[in-house]
Structures are given as structure tokens and as C-alpha cells.
Amino acid sequence: MQNDVYKESLELHQNNHGKIETVSKLKLDSAEMLSLAYTPGVAEVSREIARDPLLAREYTLKHNTIAVVSDGSAILGLGNLGALAAIPVMEGKAAIFKEFAGVDAFPICLDTQDTEEIIKAVKQIAPVFGGINLEDISAPRCFEIEERLRKELSIPVMHDDQWGAATVALAGLINSIKLTNQTKEAVKVVISGVGVAGVATARLLLAYGINNILYCDSQGIIHSGRDSLTKEKQELLDGSTAKSFEGALADAVKGADVFIGLSKPGLLTKDMVRSMSAKPIIFALSNPTPEIMPDEAYEAGAFIVGTGRSDFPNQLNNSIVFPGAFKGMLDANIPQFKIEMFSAIAQAVADSVTDLSPKKILPTMFDRSVVTVVSETIQRYK
Amino acid sequence: MQNDVYKESLELHQNNHGKIETVSKLKLDSAEMLSLAYTPGVAEVSREIARDPLLAREYTLKHNTIAVVSDGSAILGLGNLGALAAIPVMEGKAAIFKEFAGVDAFPICLDTQDTEEIIKAVKQIAPVFGGINLEDISAPRCFEIEERLRKELSIPVMHDDQWGAATVALAGLINSIKLTNQTKEAVKVVISGVGVAGVATARLLLAYGINNILYCDSQGIIHSGRDSLTKEKQELLDGSTAKSFEGALADAVKGADVFIGLSKPGLLTKDMVRSMSAKPIIFALSNPTPEIMPDEAYEAGAFIVGTGRSDFPNQLNNSIVFPGAFKGMLDANIPQFKIEMFSAIAQAVADSVTDLSPKKILPTMFDRSVVTVVSETIQRYK
What we know:
The structure is a homodimer of 382-residue chains.
Chain A: H1 2-16, E1 20-24, H2 31-37, H3 42-51, H4 56-59, E2 65-70, H5 83-101, E3 104-109, H6 115-125, E4 131-134, H7 141-152, E5 157-159, H8 160-179, E6 189-192, H9 196-208, E7 213-217, E8 220-221, H10 231-239, H11 249-253, E9 258-261, H12 270-274, E10 281-284, H13 294-299, E11 304-307, H14 322-332, H15 339-351, H16 369-379
Parallel strand pairs in A: 2-3, 2-4, 4-5, 6-7, 6-9, 9-10, 10-11
Antiparallel strand pairs in A: 7-8
Helix pairs in contact in A: 5-14, 6-7, 8-9, 8-15, 9-10, 9-15, 14-16, 15-16
């Protein structure tokens, strides 16, 4: 079945030569219209923008256009395939932005993987854009690139692999603990995988007030006795109220309420699920193969299971976050993303589910109201 | 009247927030379509491109998309207004590409005016594009930037202020000397203004076989006794068969058959036109105010007058060249522009005029066949 999807996808891409086209909003079918859209009329628009640079947002595509930027270093789960191989993914993302939120988006795939060069290139191409969606850039460079660009640019910058993933995980968690009658202060969380999405998810949970978190990476539980922790891991450890101890993932999940996997296929066993608290909440988000398959998790007593896949209930899909997030930023002309915006989006998305149940913790991206919920939430930060 | 155009143009830009939008070629209205356009299906497209980079042209927007790149250093006739002020012009150009030739085009306005940084930035963003149209970049940097990018990139690069302008001037000249029964070998040409368009026009005339050319810049006739000539001016002087002598523009045009002005308003006087040969051909291309107004030129005996303006006969407008030129390069997947392509385009465009007369030396951009003539001509160089 996977092979069919691959074959059909290749055909679709070949037949259409990609997915994004640029279209003129004006029909240039008369000399008069050309004189307004181009010379001589356009000279006045240029002069006005030179006089007041803020007018670029009023008079040009900058008003509603973002760049979807990648260096191809971490394409989907495929690894470092480079700039050309990133194009179909970034084009797909650009198509989703337009189709779901009316945001114009153009793919930029950079032929460099050097942190400073990426930062410089994005700053140099920024004038025509109203926002920058970073995508599929590997850790740890992605953290510095996002942080620096947010400081050095006057348009919103968001690395979706971090904040899209984190926001949808938090939204799902908010509704899950609602269903288990737990509080954010008391719930015990284990995060497996402390890469791009793991770090951002942890930061967002901490910012939201979920502090009892144990982290596991490929070497087991992250604790204060570990040598040479990365800056990000040390920061997360410092922010957690969980008792820090040595051990493996199996030790970490004993008695835990929530498992959030942003790691590798098959890491979570049925025995581990059985060792968790009474109503285990399992987000097995490794894609396409989760840390544990939903049927196995349920057999072992899981109360709620979410994955990244569309063929099981409870898909935790960042597509419910990023289109509305940029739409809100552009519509309200908000200069920069802040972490509290993502907490607020997660809360609003969670609250928007009216038929909440263990098999329906989140809206899907086809719920037409979700873009509005997200964009209206972010506009409160104007 | 100019003020009305300016006012209307501002309103048009404000109401539409620019002129270009990005549109998805696919309706993403089902989970199935999303699984083909995005994950999981798109993974196979990325893998295939990683395996064979040439497939990027088949499977992505690279097939039919070019960048319209400026640094804002020489916007129209307005000078160095910077990247933001360049956006409306590049957007207009992108709209023309799509409307007239079906070529997808996206404006890139770079926030740097350093030659090496521009070259590096364009190379870094090149993966998603099938061609680069450079625009409104000042001399002499534009010459090196184009030359280097042609060598260092594997997609076609053309600075339209050079080659669009030069090609349309040569096309007009070919038909003009047809009407005066002159030969390219014998016709005496004066080029006034040796900037971006002047240098390229001279190079193209020389490549076509029109060698009897005198050049004038702000210091008068360019001759071998002049100190510190730029590289470009020295090269042109070396290629000309005209007798090199000292003097002003008035001295240069005495007895000349053709005046090509790419310089400044009002430089050519009626007396100068009277001093030319029997049937003066005057291309007064300074924009919006020509070197001599058409009515004055005719009063002084001009046989053919062309300007850059749409409100007089014989508009020499590069819009008849650039859309079809890139369409041809993309359709035939030709790796790089060469000067002989522009000669061939000029000849083909000139030959396409069936109702040739002194008031109709060229097609207009609204002649629907001109894009086809240009693109089919360039495809011969596959």
C-alpha cells in the first residue's frame, strides 16, 4: 500500500511538474493596466516605499507571503538529502499554507548547511517576505538559526519541526489529562527523544506549567550525573521538577502518566506500558513507524494513544497549527513569535474540541474552524 | 496625467497588496490527496531526487520557475532605493513573465549590494529555480555578477537591463536599416550612454556585425587617447571600426546614420539631427523623457524615431524579449544564455513584422505571436 502511495506520488509530481505556481493577481491585457502594474506607475510605489519602508507591507506581496526555508539537512525522517531533495517537501508545505489558510508561501531551499551562511542568506532574502517558516533543518543548528533570526529580523520566524510539533503535542496532552482528570501540576511525563521536536515540546510543556518531566535519549535517562550534556538538555533538566535518577527508558516510564515519543520506531514495549500509571497516555509520534503500534498499546492498557499517522485515531499533526499561526501573525502584523503564543494556541485548539473522547482528542486539519481558532488566538498578542 | 497614473498605481497596489500570489496546483481537500502531495508520498519524490538530482526539474516547480533578482541599486530610472523599494518592480516583472509567457516567476530582493554577497546569495537560493533574471542592478557590478553566475550556476542567467534592452534595440535597428536600404557592414552608428544597456547594446551590435560605432559618454566621444577607460569601454573601442576621434556628441553624430540614446533626457538637439545622414534613424531610449522628443526629431528630418514610451509609435520595449527568452530556455532545458541567441532573437523578431513601415518597426508585447517567435528561436540552441 505504501508502494502505491509512492508510485502515485511520483506520477502526480511528474505530471504537474511540482505543486506551486505563481499567478498574477491582475490581468495584464491592456497598455493601461501595464502602465499601472509596471512602468511608469510602479515608479511611484517604489518611491513611496523608499520614503517609508513600512509601506512595503501595504503595497507588495510582503503583506501575505512567507518563505518556507530548508537546507535539506533533515528531510522528513529521511536524513540529510540536500537542497534539491528538499524542494518537493517545501513545495508541499507551501501548498498547504495556501490551501488551508490563504497564506502565500514560496519554497526556498538553500545550497548551504553552514549555520552562519543560512542566517545570512535568510536575512538577505527577507525583504519580500512577511514571515519565515524554517523546516527540516537538523539539530542543534536549528536552535541557533531560529533564535538568531528572531533577534536579527523584524518579521516572524518559526521552525515548524519545533513549534508545530510541540504545540500539537501540548494540545493533545491538555485534552488527554482533561479526560483522565489530572492536573498539569501533578501529571508525570516522560519524553523519549530530545532532538528538534523533543526539545521544543519539553520547553513548551515547561512554559505551560507541566514540570514533572523525565527525559530519555539514546543513552537512557538524562540526569545531573551525565557527562557533556548539550546546552539544550542541561536547560531542560534544570527546568524539570522530576526526581532525576539513572536508568533506561523502562525505568523512566514506571509509574508515569504520559509517554511522549519523538524518537525511534518500537522503543516502547507492552511491558513498559503495563508499568505506567492507571490510565496511560501514549503519544508515539515517531513517523511513519511509531514507538509502539496503537493496537499493542491498547492491549497493554493504554487509555489514550496518539500517533503522527492519519490511518489511526488521534493524529497529532502540526498541520493544524502552522497555517493558522502564520495567518494570524500576518493578518495582525505581529513582529515576532513568542513561546506563550504556542501555549495559548494549544489551549485554544484543545478547548475547540466539543466531542472530546479518548479516540478524539484533537481536531483534524480538515476541521475548517481550526485555522480560525489558531489565527484568532495568536492575534490576541498584537 | 503622470500624476493620475501614479495615484491609480498606488491605489491598485494598496488594494491588492501586491501583484503576485502563490497558488497550489492541487486541491488539497482530502487525506488521500495530502498523502500524495505531502507525507508520506512526497518522501519517495525526495529520495528519487537525492538519487538523481536532474529529476528536480521533472518533479518540482524548478521546471518552470525563475527568480527575478534585484539588489535595488538601480531601480528603473530612480537610482539606488534599496531592496524593499525594488519589490513592486520585481513583482510587476514576475507578473509579466506569467501573463505573457506562462513562466512562473518570483521576486527576490536582496538586502545586500556587495558583488560577492549577491553572487553567493543567488547561488544559495538557486536550487528551486530553473533560471535567474537579474534586474535593476547598477553598473559595473552587474557585468561581473552576470558573468560569474553564468559560469558558476547550471541554470540560465540573464540581466534583462542589458540583454532585453540590447536585443530590442538590435531588432529595431535591423528593420530600420531594411527600410533605409542600408547594410549592417556600412551603417554608421552612434551610441550615447555607455552604462548597463549601452554596453550590452554595443556588444550585441558588434556580435551581429554592425561594427562602425562611435560611443559617447558624459565626457564626449570615447577615443583611444582617453585616460582610465573602464574595462567595458576599452573593449568596445577595440571592437569598433569607426574612426576614433576627439569631440562631443555633436561631433560624433555628424554624418551618422543611427543615433541610439541610452543616456539622458534632451541630449540630442534638432541641429544634431540635421547634421546626420540623409535618413536619420533615432532611438531616443532614455525613459521616461527621451534624448529628443519624437515631434522635434521628425521636424529636424528624422526618418525613423523610436522611444521607450508606449504613447509614441515604435516603442522599443524589452517586454517583447524577456518572457519568451526564458520560456524557450525552460521549455528546451538549455543550460545557459549566449550572445548569439540574442542576435538570433533580434533577427527573428524583426523578420516577424509583416506590415513594416517607419512608424511600425517592431511588434508590440500585445502581439500574441511574439512570445512564440522568441521562444522558438532560442530553442534552436538546444
